[in-house]
Design brief:
single chain; 290 residues; alpha+beta; Phosphorylase Kinase, domain 1; Transferase(Phosphotransferase), domain 1; 2 domains; seven-stranded antiparallel sheet; two-stranded antiparallel ribbon; 34% helix; disordered N terminus
């Protein structure tokens, strides 16, 4: 490592970390410069769990790198581009395109909720991103406003942070032990420890759409226990602000994943609303077989 001060480390001999952009449970994201290619990038430095044995830590690094490499193969305008994956000081680091602009969560916090039309467009863009990931056997598992970036210059919606993604055929540490994720946006079948599929990401999209138009998750409560109960048991009543998007929201927030609105159905409803300003009703059995 070349050290250029606390905020200017160089990792892998080329990526100069210059300013911290954010910190979360899955690591620290830095604004950085790729000194080899002379371009600005974002570097996500994943945490090192000191409670793991040396063997477990090595397995965690390998699994993280395998999943990051899988995500790096995804190509979609609404998925963040992964440029490189390196290990530095025994920590996996993911080098990504730098999106100049804040998150959807930050936009809501600063300026208030989106209008239903803008929220529908965000939802449509995210459906495209999820469709590409799911086709490649990758579940995001942490879709929430904080993981959706809005590029300032273009308005492009970008899905990021696949830190707890699940890759088909791979076993991850996040599948064992304590729950990892954002409970207010997590599908009830995952809360219950059941096997999950793409339908779980679609539930998260439904909760995100409600947050986008109302400013708050429909499952926000005063305690984690309250959140879990709300996700699994409470009657789901979207707030008045979500009424224009009610058919798609209620279809996505169907607790039975077999009956949940699928991606194609959600796309049809959102596109109809964007084009006409009116969302058609949710057809019976729109989410597939019971």
């Amino acid at each position: 490592m070349g050290s250029l001060g606390d905020n200017a480390r160089v990792i892998a001999g080329r990526y100069r970390l210059e300013a911290r952009l954010g910190r979360g449970g899955m690591g620290v994201v830095w604004r950085a410069t790729d000194q080899l290619l002379g371009r600005r990038v974002a570097v996500k430095e994943l945490p090192l769990d000191e409670t793991l044995s040396e063997e477990e830590a090595a397995q965690q690094r390998e699994r993280t790198l395998r999943e990051a490499r899988a995500v790096a193969q995804l190509r979609h305008p609404h998925i963040v581009v992964v440029h490189d994956v390196v290990v530095h000081d025994e920590r996996p680091c993911i080098v990504m395109e730098l999106i100049e602009g804040g998150s959807l969560a930050g936009r809501i916090s600063r300026s208030g909720p989106l209008g239903p039309g803008a929220a529908a467009r965000v939802g449509l863009d995210l459906l495209g991103a999820l469709g590409t990931a799911h086709a490649a056997g990758i579940l995001h598992r942490d879709l929430k406003p904080g993981n959706v970036l809005l590029e300032e210059a273009t308005g492009r919606v970008v899905l990021t942070d696949f830190g707890i993604a699940q890759v088909s055929g791979a076993t991850t540490l996040t599948e064992v032990g304590s729950f990892v994720g954002s409970p207010e946006y997590t599908a009830p079948e995952r809360m219950s420890g059941e096997r999950t599929g793409p339908e779980s990401d679609l539930w998260s999209l439904g909760a995100l759409l409600v947050t986008a138009v109302s400013g708050e998750s429909p499952f926000r409560r005063d305690s984690i226990g309250g959140v879990l109960h709300a996700v699994v048991f409470d009657e789901i009543r979207p707030p008045p602000a979500a009424e224009p998007l009610a058919p798609v929201v209620l279809g996505l927030l169907e607790r039975d994943p077999r009956r949940r609105l699928d991606a194609a159905g959600a796309e049809r409803l959102l596109r109809a609303y964007i084009e006409t300003g009116v969302m058609p009703p949710l057809p019976d059995a729109a989410a597939g077989p019971a």
